[in-house]
Q: What sequence folds into this?
């Protein structure tokens, strides 16, 4: 949103523009220069210490270096199979907006082998040994955060779990009304959704174990998410998953022949708040669901507990029934039943003191106070086991704001975040969204505009990665095939003083649009170096810009990079460069990112942009965007 006052020059992009702007080199000179550069680069490369990015510079970019130094936008938009599909529900919000896309043409879908190693994202089938579903009322943010911390040791999202360990996954089954629109509570809810990506909003108004179970069997299955064991609980229960795993391991070995490991159903009659059930047991339950509904007459009970009672009655009847036909019917039911473990003691109810918790307790229900929850977790030795086993630590983070200014971005914020998250997921980058740093600006002794939160965020996140890729909320990725590594290769290879000089000196890459007075800080790359830390520290002292509109932190950045010691470290992308910060009017098919930044609230412009992004991914060509 920074730079919202800036004009949008109406000229199309210079045909031979390079990332440094078209005017710097003539075409011939440039070709020679590029060839020279490539040669120099390879010489350097073989015996240099150019390994600051050695982990990440492995894909396509370096292989096609001579070509990649010019960044003439590709007009062909690859249709990248299904894995580009935006997850889960962006469509409805966009459809209500008027389309900003002037001309959309169908384009022949041309396939070429992807040069990027695409890892499975949310739309590819995923199987987990244990799938934990925690039912939680939409408004209970604080309990959810306590659960994340207590169960999984997740204090913050600075190094988020981008891919869950195949052995285990968890999610919140969120019921009840979302907090009212345009309230602070709603902002927090949207923010939580963006930052944690573990909320599954359902239509139910209350927790019901049966509904959770059916939801897992239908909605989740349709999405390709399957499991061996389902662990269902409400947010007021605490489950000791380690004990459950241990018990399952030992029990399964002793199953009667004919029963599968996933035939297990672990119930506690009378306790609706915790259940462990194997996938086969769940299927058997739902196969003849109606049969078990009325087994228990007094009070309500869960379907699974009823199934257990039904099973018990079959066993009892088998003792006295003699009629052959009936006997074989009962025998078949017995053989076809899940393997039930009935639990009375180890599924406990909170008795208001931890001393009441017996050894080997695996679940305690009805813990309403957060401090009690923490005390029980301690008593049950909940270690905060990690749910995430990253294959490798991400070296690049896509970082954005999840702070919803005066509610204006409420409808589009989480969709805009999904656009960036799926991009990060596709290329194995981390996706970090933050809001607290924006909110805290008003709490400071010297109050600053919320947008200064960006600097706090960058300071906080940068040390955890090699490169940080900042994107304002209103910047939308149009071409997710573009990788950060390729861009860095291009910067390096076409750097006038050579790739080595780029590695040594450049720590900030940012655009300076032609008609703007200064940089546009809506999108930039920053490298984790001492210089960057010093730059950020100094920036924090720019009191003149704390509340000085319209530029604020952007003005402070611009001022500072005029100074010797700072300006040498900055690569300015000039002349309406299309590398990563294209204004809507200047869009050329193939451009990586469109940054909407209108004068007014960017909500509808962003929704339109997201719609266009999806069309592009479906193989259509979007040629321009309307002025907002
Ligand atoms: C959960 O939400 C309910 C209703 O919104 C509220 O009464 C209760 O205090 C909340 N509990 C926690 C732990 O936040
Ligand atoms: C469900 O009902 C059918 C028909 O009565 C029966 O053949 C089948 O075994 C039942 N399934 C289970 C899991 O009991």
A:
């Amino acid at each position: 949103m920074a730079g919202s006052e800036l004009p949008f020059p109406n000229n199309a992009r210079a045909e031979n523009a390079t990332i440094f702007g078209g005017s710097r080199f003539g075409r011939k000179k440039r070709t020679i220069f590029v060839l020279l550069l490539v040669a120099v680069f390879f010489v350097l490369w073989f015996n240099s210490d150019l390994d600051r990015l050695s982990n990440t510079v492995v894909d396509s970019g370096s292989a096609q270096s001579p070509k990649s130094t010019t960044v003439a936008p590709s007009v062909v938009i690859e249709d990248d199979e299904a894995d580009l599909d935006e997850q889960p529900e962006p469509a409805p919000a966009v459809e209500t907006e008027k389309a900003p896309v002037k001309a959309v043409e169908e384009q022949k879908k041309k396939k070429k082998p992807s040069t990027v190693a695409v890892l499975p994202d949310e739309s590819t089938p995923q199987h987990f040994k244990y799938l934990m579903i925690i039912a939680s009322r939409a408004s209970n943010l604080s309990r959810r955060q306590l659960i994340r911390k207590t169960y999984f040791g997740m204090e913050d999202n600075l190094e988020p779990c981008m891919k869950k360990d195949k052995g285990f996954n968890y999610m919140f089954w969120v019921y009840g009304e979302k907090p009212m629109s345009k309230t602070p509570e709603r902002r927090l809810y949207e923010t939580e959704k963006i930052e944690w990506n573990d909320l599954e909003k359902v239509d139910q108004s209350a927790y019901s174990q049966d509904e959770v179970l059916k939801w897992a069997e239908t909605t989740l299955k349709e999405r390709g998410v399957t499991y061996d064991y389902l662990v269902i609980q409400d947010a007021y229960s605490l489950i000791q998953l380690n004990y459950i795993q241990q018990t399952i391991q030992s029990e399964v070995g002793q199953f009667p022949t004919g029963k599968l490991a996933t035939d297990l159903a672990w119930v506690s009659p009378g306790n609706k708040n915790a259940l462990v059930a194997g996938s086969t047991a769940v299927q058997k339950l739902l196969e003849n669901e109606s049969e078990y509904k009325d087994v228990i007459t007094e009070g309500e009970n869960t379907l699974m507990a009823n199934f257990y009672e039904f099973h018990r009655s079959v066993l009892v009847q088998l003792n006295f029934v003699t009629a052959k036909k009936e006997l074989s019917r009962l025998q078949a039911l017995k053989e076809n039943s899940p393997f039930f473990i009935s639990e009375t003691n180890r599924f406990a109810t909170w008795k208001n003191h931890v001393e009441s918790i017996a050894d080997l307790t695996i679940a305690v229900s009805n813990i309403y106070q957060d401090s009690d929850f923490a005390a029980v977790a301690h008593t049950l030795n909940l270690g905060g086991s990690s749910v995430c086993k990253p294959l490798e630590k991400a070296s690049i983070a896509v970082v954005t704001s999840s702070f919803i200014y005066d509610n204006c971005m409420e409808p589009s914020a989480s969709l805009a975040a999904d656009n960036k998250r799926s991009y990060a997921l596709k290329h194995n980058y981390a996706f970090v969204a933050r809001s607290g740093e924006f909110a805290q600006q008003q709490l400071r002794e010297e109050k600053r505009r919320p947008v200064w939160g960006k600097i706090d965020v960058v300071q906080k996140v940068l040390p955890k990665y090699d490169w940080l890729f900042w994107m304002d909320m209103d910047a939308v990725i149009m071409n997710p095939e573009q990788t950060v590594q390729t861009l860095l290769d291009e910067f390096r290879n076409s750097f006038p003083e050579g790739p080595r000089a780029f590695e040594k000196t450049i720590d900030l890459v940012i655009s300076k649009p032609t008609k703007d007075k200064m940089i546009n800080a809506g999108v930039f790359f920053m490298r984790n170096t001492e210089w960057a830390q010093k730059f950020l520290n100094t920036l924090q002292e720019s009191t003149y810009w704390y509340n000085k509109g319209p530029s604020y932190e952007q003005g402070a950045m611009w001022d500072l990079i005029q100074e010797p010691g700072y300006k040498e470290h900055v690569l300015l992308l000039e002349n309406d460069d299309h590398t990563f910060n294209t204004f809507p009017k200047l869009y050329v098919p193939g451009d990586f990112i469109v940054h909407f930044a209108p004068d007014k609230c960017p909500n509808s412009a962003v929704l339109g942009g997201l719609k266009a992004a999806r069309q592009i991914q479906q193989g259509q060509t979007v040629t321009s965007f309307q002025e907002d």
